[in-house]
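This part of the workshop introduces the protein records we will be handling. A learned vocabulary of local backbone shapes supplies the integers on the structure line. Getting from the letters to the tokens is the skill we practise here. As an example, a complete record with its sequence and its structure tokens follows.
=====
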Amino acid sequence: MTSTFHSLETAKRSLFTQTMALNTTGHNIANANTDGYSRQTVKMSAARPLEAYGINRSVNPGQLGTGVEVVSVERIREQFLDEQFRNENKSLGAWNIQYDTLDKLQTIINEPSDTGISALVNNFWKAWSDLSKDPENITNRKIVKETTLALTDALNHTSKQLSDLNSDLTNNVAVNASDMNSILSSIGDLNRQITRIESLGDKANDLRDQRDLLTDQLSNLVNVEVTELPEGYQITMGGQVLVAGENPTPITADFLQNAYAAGTLNNGEIYGMIYSRDTYVQDYQSQLDQFANTLVNGDITVTIPAGAILPEGTVIGTQTFSGPTRTLADDLTVTIKGINALHKLGYSANDGAPVPGGDFFAAKDGGTAITAGNITMSQAILDDPSLIATSLRTTGSGTTETVVKGNNGLALIMADLKDVKFTFGGGQTATSTIDDYFKAIVGQVGVQANEAKRQADNALILTDQVNAKRQSVSGVSLDEEMSNMMMFQHAYSAAARFMTTFDEVLNKLINGTGVVGR
């Protein structure tokens, strides 16, 4: 026999269930714009039916339903899309950093422009050409001095900018290592909380969303693989465990550098930082150093005209020029070591005994190795531009030998170096003019930047596509939630009406039955 108050219990269960559904809908609406939030839904199930008791079985036909009950509140999430998103997100992070670095390199190199190194190199050659037209003009000598200083200062500044960019990338690796520690610590803490809550039979939906959001952020920094174990997420990077359960691995800049060297760190922003620093920045620093050193000391082949008189004791290759052999009877084609060696073949415009040209360039730190960072004009020429060698001729002999000041033989050869091919070292066997070599550097960074931008754009498109699919599954649709809210509201109203109706039935049963006619 059915309980008199059975329907009241059925109505109460319905009211409670629809109330939970409405609360969950409100929770979804409230978090429609919350990063990482996954739409939640109430799973309902018909409550276990009752059967009127008999000796063997119920004598009543069928079973009596007891209403509805909440089975669980679950978030809508698809693990496959999460994995796809993280795979694309790490590539996006790596390419974004590489493009950003190459874009900065383009800004540092600043070509083509009227103030870049290429323009300054052309000004340097032009100054020598102008000097060759009037070798004794002090103004032209000062112009050579100033254009040389402008060129060396530009090389110094560019080298410093490259060094600063290198340091910035190194510092950013350390900063991101700290960020990783914070993220991994939070994931470990969430692993502990989720395990504790779900061991009691509840679904820790909001905590799981927070953990997945942190994992997404981590995937932008490094390449991660996520495995869900009973104790929570185990996150690895190329086989190296970053966090397991509530135990994160401490991350340092050295740890990340070693992981990069071992190949376990192979994607993400941090990979992009280390790769950009060790590949792009150092490569361009090396090429710029090679540019400066070759300008000063690189092998060049020049032709010294017949009639030139070389300084006493000049050594070219295996030949020493001394006494009568100083005067060239024929044109002499020789290979010498850059502008410094060429400058030593001429004479400065001084009165009295011939003074051979000294080093035209020098290192600021006094060292022998010339780099873009330390190249400068020799201090002697800085102090006295008249020491710039332009002449290849002397007159007289012995103590009466003097320089032919109007001679422009060396200045002409210097000006013609614009079209002379230098041999670049560092393992390179190809020769190139100074201008062409620098243009190749500019062209290389431009091509690499375009490629990095293309890859970054493609990675962004793929990441957005996967994220759009993920949002279509997990995201909150306000239209859908409003529709659900109306549905649950009507169900709640109907259950309330049912309870009111049955209350009236019970009132009639209790207060009206058996009193008819009294």
